């Protein structure tokens, strides 16, 4: 009841009261409640509370007895604590957000903030997965500039898109993913919804799982992209991990992965990275993908692909879609989230899609209708600019060719840097350590195997900013900086535990 009294005066105070649940709450006399009008000055309530608390404790203490004594002592402590909190809030001019704690910085995006604050000339940002030129500058693809120029010349409008997004984009994105000739496209088996890039697409799918598969759990690789857990947590979808990374080989723990997928409750959603696994850069081989598909099929699990790097891993859109197409070819129902942040460099345009391959066209229609129903109250309809860029680039054979070339160049620059880093490490490290795992990894990241303390040393001593799991983004590295980075890694690996 004390909290009820506070609720009329300040949510801050009710948050304070809510946090004091450990001890039985103090109950003000019911006759006082009606005289506490909404918006009552908090200091009046506090003063009343303090006087009334003393009165109550006095009465209780006077009653005597062991139980009453313990109760009084606990309540006294509780009062003192809460009173201190409320007085503190008053001293700093009460905010209604007193009960809102500071959130920790994002483990990936927070790295960029720390990088910006560092004034050392040698600093290197290998935290966020964003492509940089050899001069370490952000890159807007020429084909994107060309598409944007065309859009301006045509005087295209900014009207709302339908909930499902731009039809031309949805067609283009599904065809890129599955291949234009894929029977699932020809037979209308795919429900495609334009969504807010990879993250938004995953989040929409998570909301769908929560609504229509409330008993199911999602299993995700250990480790995985940091935001996966947040997405499923916020959507209230239970998840657990399957083994993926083997620290001994800095490679794939294939047996562990298969065993854990097999052991998951039948009908689980298995989150798979379509290509260029983030953070490890370790992908299954084509033969291993077949075995993964076998187990998923046997256990009646639902494959759920996250494709954030199509074309960016190998330089080929088709090669990077191999895993998804393999599952689809087996006639399986599949979820696929797509992103154009990396392969078209459209990070801030928030353009991507959620695709659900279904067993029949009418199932796809129903699934799509429900995805739209989920999207409408979340963000109403998606943004148009990125969708038009993708649709224009893919829809024009010349621009499509130019995009593929630029993608190959980006993927090629990352491969060169990967090779040079390996060469520098092998030449400089006289310990005989085998660094060849770096060459076996794929995509924009390398999982160095450095632990948190060693990663801290990379930042504190060498001004190399990276995530604390030992991941570095090679897309943020230049050939010129490879030697410096190799020195930092060797020092951190051999001299820090
Ligand atoms: C594995 C993975 N999935 C999804 C995303 C989502 O990215 P975005 O929301 O920018 O498309 C990323 C981005 O780094 C990623 O690495």
Write up this protein.
The longest helix is centred in the C-terminal third of the chain and has 32 residues. The chain has 3 domains: 90 residues, no CATH class; 120 residues, Aspartate Aminotransferase, domain 1; 236 residues, Type I PLP-dependent aspartate aminotransferase-like (Major domain) (Aspartate Aminotransferase, domain 2). By secondary structure, the protein is an alpha/beta fold. α6 runs antiparallel to α17 and α11 packs parallel to α12. The protein is globular and about 65 Å long. It has a 7-stranded mixed β-sheet with strand order 2-10-9-8-7-3-4, with helices on both faces. It has a two-stranded parallel sheet with strand order 1-12. Helix content is 50%, strand content 11%. β3, α10 and β4 form a beta-alpha-beta unit.
Summarize the structure.
It comes from Paspalum notatum var. saurae. This protein is of the alpha/beta class.
Keywords:
globular, two-stranded parallel ribbon, 20 helices, 497 residues, Aspartate Aminotransferase, domain 1, binds pyridoxal-5'-phosphate, pyridoxal phosphate, PyrdxlP-dep_Trfase_small, Aspartate Aminotransferase, domain 2, seven-stranded mixed β-sheet, aminotransferase, Aspartate aminotransferase, disordered N terminus, alpha/beta
């Amino acid at each position: 009841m004390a909290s009820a009294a506070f609720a009329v005066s300040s949510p801050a105070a009710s948050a304070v009261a809510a946090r004091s649940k450990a001890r039985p709450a103090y109950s003000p006399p019911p006759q006082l409640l009606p005289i506490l009008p909404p918006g009552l000055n908090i200091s009046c309530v506090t003063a009343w509370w303090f006087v009334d608390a003393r009165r109550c404790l006095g009465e209780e203490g006077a009653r005597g007895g062991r139980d009453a004594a313990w109760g009084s002592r606990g309540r006294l402590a509780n009062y003192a604590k809460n009173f201190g909190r409320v007085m503190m809030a008053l001293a700093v001019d009460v905010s209604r957000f007193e009960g809102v704690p500071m959130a920790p910085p994002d483990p990936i995006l927070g790295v960029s903030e720390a990088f910006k604050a560092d004034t050392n000339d040698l600093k290197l940002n290998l935290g966020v997965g964003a492509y940089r030129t050899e001069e370490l500058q952000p890159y807007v693809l020429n084909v994107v500039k060309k598409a944007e120029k065309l859009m301006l010349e045509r005087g295209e409008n900014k009207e709302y898109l339908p909930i499902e997004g731009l039809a031309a984009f949805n067609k283009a994105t599904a065809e890129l993913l599955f291949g234009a000739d894929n029977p699932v496209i020809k037979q209308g088996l795919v429900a495609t919804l334009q969504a807010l890039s990879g993250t938004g697409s995953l989040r929409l799918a998570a909301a769908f799982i929560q609504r229509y598969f409330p008993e199911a759990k999602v299993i995700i690789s250990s480790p995985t992209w940091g935001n996966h857990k947040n997405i499923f947590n916020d959507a209230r979808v239970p998840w657990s991990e399957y083994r993926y990374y083997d620290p001994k080989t800095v490679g794939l723990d294939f047996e562990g992965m298969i065993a854990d997928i097999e052991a998951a409750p039948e009908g689980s959603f298995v989150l798979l990275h379509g290509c260029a696994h983030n953070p490890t850069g370790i992908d299954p081989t084509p033969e291993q993908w077949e075995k993964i598909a076998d187990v998923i099929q046997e256990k009646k699990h639902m494959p759920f692909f996250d494709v954030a790097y199509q074309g960016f891993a190998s330089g080929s859109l088709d090669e990077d879609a191999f895993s998804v197409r393999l599952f689809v070819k087996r006639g399986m129902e599949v979820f696929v989230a797509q992103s154009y942040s990396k392969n078209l460099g459209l990070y801030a345009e928030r353009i991507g899609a959620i695709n659900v391959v279904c067993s029949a066209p009418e199932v796809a229609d129903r699934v799509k209708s429900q995805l739209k129903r989920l999207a409408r109250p979340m963000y109403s309809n998606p943004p148009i600019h990125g969708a038009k860029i993708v649709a224009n680039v893919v829809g024009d054979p010349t621009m499509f060719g130019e995009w593929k070339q630029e993608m190959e160049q980006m993927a090629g620059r990352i491969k060169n840097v990967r090779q040079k880093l390996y060469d520098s490490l092998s030449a400089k490290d006289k310990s005989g350590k085998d660094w060849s795992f770096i060459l076996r990894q794929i995509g924009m990241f390398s999982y160095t195997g450095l632990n948190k303390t060693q990663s801290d040393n990379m930042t504190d001593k060498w001004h190399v900013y990276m995530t604390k799991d030992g991941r570095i983004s090679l897309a943020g590295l230049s050939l010129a900086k490879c030697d410096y980075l190799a020195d930092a890694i060797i020092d951190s690996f051999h001299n820090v535990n």
